[in-house]
Amino acid sequence: MAIQQRAERTRQEILSAAARVFDGHGYERASLARIAGEARVTTGALVFHFATKADLATAVRGRARAVTRITVESACLSTEGVGGTAIDKLVIATHALIRLFETDPTARAGERLARELQLTDPGLSGDCPWRREVARLARYAEAEKALRPGVDATAVAALIGYVITGVELEMRGPNTAPAGESWPPEEPRTAENGALHGPAEQRLARIWALILPGLVHPAGRRHGA
Length: 225
Prior knowledge:
It contains 9 helices and no strands.
């Protein structure tokens, strides 16, 4: 039992290290040796748990899907007791996602891997819990007649998806492309250096303030960003 527990701890440490490396360097520039060094294990120990970099990427994306799904579901549940509408839930869920992306390297790694690997496997685009939840809430908003006449739920979901992706990419700095370096190791992202918490959510709030009037039916406009 103790051996199994140690093996599971090592596996989880490798996954956390892989998430940090994928987040910071992208899929192509990540290597098993670099991930093993980040996890402080030998390459042989890493390969014992994950035979290939693709296996690691799949596992990290699985973790990321789980944490983003829990985040959006919890955010939506937080409005249940106060009669939150679908639009309220959309706003709250997107803010929760941005807070998650600001603080969780696994969630960020999942987003980066999804973008980069989608270039070789377009089918991965539908494998995203938060996008599915955004689409569901947009349909509910349409059913509640909360959207302006002529505003299509599918277009709303796509717009919000672009907004979230854009804000998440902007967190990575002005010189970051999906396949390039993210943050240099000598500048770790911490609350102390101002790279975490606050600015991204403020940008999202300003975006919501701009787009809500064009989306929401005037008779039901009571939603804050």
